[in-house]
Amino acid sequence: MSLELLRRFDLNLVVVLHVLLEERSVSRSAARLCLSQSAVSRALARLRSVFADELFVRLPHGLQPTARALALASELTDVLGALAQLVAPPLFDPVSCRQAFCVSMMEHLSVQIMPSLLARLEQEAPGVRIQVEPWSRCSLHDMTVGHLDLCINIVPLQRHDLHCHLIAPAPGFAFVARNHPYAGCRQISLSQYKACSHVRLDSGEYTALPFPPSVASLLAERTLLLSTSDPHLACEVVSQTRSLMVGTRPLCRWWMERYRLQALRLPAELSALDSHYQMTWHQLTHRTPEHVWLRRVFLEACQSLLETEQREACVA
User: How do the residues of the chain divide into helix, strand and coil, expressed in percent and rounded to 5?
Assistant: First the structure.
């Protein structure tokens, strides 16, 4: 059948023909299809026109299919089965999945989440592969063309083609060594902030944040001891000097313990640094079962990390 003919053909007629062949009765077919008898009769008239055949002959006790109708019956089951499979929601089985996913995550999250998450995938989805990349100026484009499946960061991405799920608040903090003169403070003042030398972590997530001019100027006025894109180096330098580094909490307890850091609330003048950890993905993958599963797995990993931090904080 040509595309032009298919365009003019109502596929609902195939269903009517299938039921008529099974029921051999207009009234029983109408009841099964939840249609009126006149509607089924009209559909039969259209079918006769399409196939240029009588299709059914009326007998005292029902309908008798013609040779043409019987020949169509042998093909209808396959056709309807293929159509049902085409429109049915796709099924996803993690065990049989062999897909590679690309995820962008902040490094202080990935080092805490990925080991246990990969151990879980070994059991639930052994064929799945995860590639973790840093956020960059190309990440938005990569999401648009399907090269990046998911990102977890603090960048507020407001676009109609992106979906977002907030994970947790990410207020701004100053991180200092535990023997730092300000280590005993819960919050530092603006004068204390300015008096310290700073370690600046040049990661894609932080540089992409839009700040008000007043906050941007305070950040620009810092006396920099070090500027680096290596979070391990940044934390190591902070742990051994009297400098401070601006970052976010929570989801950073592992780093604080590893490098023996103390988190201090930033002065009120820098409250615009407060943000949210969020999961973002493109509309292209919003409803595909494998991506729905992927987002659930990463969200559960983040929630588990948050719960662990909260329990440890209560014990401390």
Answer: 50, 20, 30
Q: Which tokens sit at 18?
A: 């299938």
The torsion region of residue 250 among left (phi > 0), alpha (psi -120 to 50) and beta comes to beta
310 CA to centre of own chain: 25
Task: Give bridge partners of residue 59 from the DSSP assignment.
Answer: 62
Closest-CA residue to 152 (of 210, 206, 119, 109)? 109
CA of residue 275 relative to chain centroid, distance? 19
pLDDT digits over 226-268, tens only? 999 898 999 999 999 999 999 888 888 888 999 999 999 999 9
| Nearest-angstrom CA–CA distance, 74 and 70 | 7
Report the relative pairing of strands 172-177 and 261-265 from DSSP bridges: antiparallel
State phi, psi for 88 to the nearest 5 degrees. -70, 150
* Cα 277 from Cα 153, distance rounded (Å): 5
Return the bridge partners of 201, or none: 228
**Region of residue 199 (left: phi > 0; alpha: psi -120 to 50; beta: else):** beta
Contact (CB, 8 A) for 104 and 150: yes
Question: How far apart, in Å, are the Cα atoms of 87 and each of 82, 83, 84, 234, 287?
Answer: 9, 6, 5, 53, 14
Total-model pTM:
0.70
Q: Is the C-alpha dihedral spanning 136, 139, 141, 145 positive or negative? A: positive
Q: Return the structure tokens found at 102.
A: 């690309």
Short-list 193, 265, 200, CA closest to 233: 200
Angle 28-69-72 from CA coordinates, rounded to 5°: 110
pLDDT tens string 257-277: 999 999 999 999 888 888 899
What whole-number distance in Å separates Cα of residue 189 and Cα of residue 193?
6
- Separation CA 251–CA 306 (nearest Å): 6
